[in-house]
Amino acid sequence: MPIADKMVKMVEAASMIRKMFEEGIRMKEKFGADHVFDFSLGNPDVPPPKIMQETLLDLIHDDTVSHGYMPNPGFMHVRQAVADYLNQTFNVGLTPDLIVMTVGAAGALNDCLRALINPGEELLTPAPYFVGYNQYAFVAGATLITASTRPDFHLDLEAIQTAITEKTRVVLINSPNNPTGAVYSAEELDGLGRVLEAASKKFDKRIYLISDEPYRKIAYDVTVPSVFDAYNHTIVLTSYSKELSLAGERIGYLAVHPKAEDARLIAGAAGVANTMMYVNAPSLFQQVVGRLQGITVDIDIYRRRRDIFCQGLKQAGYEFDVPDGAFYLFPKSPIENDVEFVNLLKDQNILAVPGTGFGGPGHFRLSYAVPDKTIIDSLPGFKKAIQSVK
Amino acid sequence: MPIADKMVKMVEAASMIRKMFEEGIRMKEKFGADHVFDFSLGNPDVPPPKIMQETLLDLIHDDTVSHGYMPNPGFMHVRQAVADYLNQTFNVGLTPDLIVMTVGAAGALNDCLRALINPGEELLTPAPYFVGYNQYAFVAGATLITASTRPDFHLDLEAIQTAITEKTRVVLINSPNNPTGAVYSAEELDGLGRVLEAASKKFDKRIYLISDEPYRKIAYDVTVPSVFDAYNHTIVLTSYSKELSLAGERIGYLAVHPKAEDARLIAGAAGVANTMMYVNAPSLFQQVVGRLQGITVDIDIYRRRRDIFCQGLKQAGYEFDVPDGAFYLFPKSPIENDVEFVNLLKDQNILAVPGTGFGGPGHFRLSYAVPDKTIIDSLPGFKKAIQSVK
């Protein structure tokens, strides 16, 4: 092969996603964009808060703004601002040397896995899980292992305990969850902490917890508990993609718990991984987010869409758990084969993603990061699709 | 170890560089910034062209500017703009599907190596070479092999021919060169193309040429010839770090020669690697550079510094080739041990990097991406240092 052997499978998987994407474009051209209901992508369409644009303009008018290299793990004043914000919010005692500014949450996860995982070691995550985890495991040479969740998609601690082996290096959680919208409670996180502590003892090897939290601020009627409180050996990573609607700008960070075993060494190694892969997180947007700690897009827009969508789908006869966070619905497929049902939805010009791709067969994912009108206008199609199989 | 075994060496190497960097900060605090002459970093200090700021403001005031995800290999209109510019300049027939917008040249190189190299395959580069190549080879699981250059740091085609083995997958060149400032001529590139064509036949395996060109626009009194003309199986990669002084913003691209064997497959695989590692190149700066094709910082500033520095060092008795491009000088160390001589320079509050780190022992690297005054004020120190060993 002209390309690397191991890349062949990744290119094939990507070309399947691209085909789906291109099919969507083709459909929009054929039927008109207003008549195609695309719920396939998690691309925030809520505009960034007004203060984001003002901050950006302010910085660019300021002659001292830097577009050049900074110390690779990020501007010290930005890392300090992140640490201050996290300390105020979670009372965790972070110092800036435990923060690395990253190329989004994807970059942060790649950094952490590169820092921690020896080839062939295992990365354990509850399923359903974000499809990108396959790619990040691949990049780090890790083996991705899944543990099933409970029927409501919350943590099944016994399943996790059983799935941990002597090769497990990292357990990776994502709450609010993509694709299910589940938000883990403080109790279940505490339980997870106890499982990881016991397993680390049992295998005489520290198991680290990585908490991937890009949807932390997109939560409805629930508080998203701090993972720092549940387990000392935790790395939290996130991006400003959803909370400031800056997904394309690739800006995020990782924060290593000050009480984690070898916390400074791990933060240092993640910083080196960051340098090797991306050099540094984008300069201008580091400076933007440094000034916007705690600022969030208008969550009520997502809440309203969730409510409209849930009501409409319920009336049509779909079964699902009302999501507590993120901007996804993960309904049960009315027939066993979710790929087949997603094709039936496509006959109604509705684009969804089969749950199988997320390790959650028998379900399908709908992103409601779309205008209200798309949701409302799609509902008759959802009704027809479910009626066609009942 | 709490961190991955293979990362230990990388962290140690990075901590040496950090120590040097921190020593510089310590010296500046002790002696005052005006009395420390820091030539260690290649961080462009020439401001971006005025039109860069105007374009940025224009885009931000435009409500249609996107901060969200775009197709992972980049905005189609930006890839088209890059292809148009390259076609106008080099008459090479590029189409946008052969362009991937990347997180700087580092990201582009990581993408290409990930796309092409099977673990253990060899990446061959002429030495002295940019120190980051060690890291990018590590990330891809490639073995970095070097071929010596001629005394003037131009390509030694025989050395390259000899160094190619059945494991060689990629030959990587960098012209204008960091650290030497050499610019390869059309003739030597043609010669390299012939060597690679012959070696590909000999080993019955296509060897690809990657041309890392972030300094292409920083050239004095010479034209930097097109590598596309020399060898069909070429991937050119670059960034806007130096030509627009945007090093911290992490924006660049890769372009696969339309006549390369399996060109589209390789561009596709590099695009998938890009997605897996960084998701996409930063959105706002993609849109900025899309409008600024062919725009360059004021090169005369670098030329003036080069001339002042060369004249001063020559008068002090240093031996070096006057660089044709980039913003580095790579003088001979007056004593064999370059690390020792760099320490003697430090006694004069001059910070330089030993050539050993670049695979060029017996030399040291000076970056003249610094104000004229730093160069002028440092010259007495350079004189004292060389006199102390003569």
Describe the structure.
- Chain A has 390 residues and is of the alpha/beta class.
- Chain A has 2 domains: 5-49 and 297-387, Aspartate Aminotransferase, domain 1 (Alpha-Beta Complex); 67-290, Type I PLP-dependent aspartate aminotransferase-like (Major domain) (Aspartate Aminotransferase, domain 2, 3-Layer(aba) Sandwich), CATH 3.40.640.
- Chain A has 12 helices and 12 strands.
- Chain A has helices at residues 5-31, 50-61, 76-90, 104-116, 132-140, 157-163, 186-202, 263-278, 283-290, 299-316, 338-347, 372-387, and strands spanning 37-38, 99-102, 122-127, 143-148, 168-173, 208-212, 234-239, 252-256, 328-329, 350-351, 353-354, 364-367.
- A 7-stranded mixed sheet of chain A has the order 2-8-7-6-5-3-4, sandwiched between helices.
- The radius of gyration of chain A is 21 Å and the shape is globular.
- In chain A, 54% of the residues are buried.
- At the A-B interface, helix 1, helix 2, helix 4, helix 5 and helix 8 of A face helix 1, helix 2, helix 4, helix 5 and helix 8 of B.
- Chains A, B: It holds the Pfam family Aminotran_1_2.
- Chains A, B: Keywords: Aminotransferase, Transferase.
- Chains A, B: Its cofactor is pyridoxal 5'-phosphate.
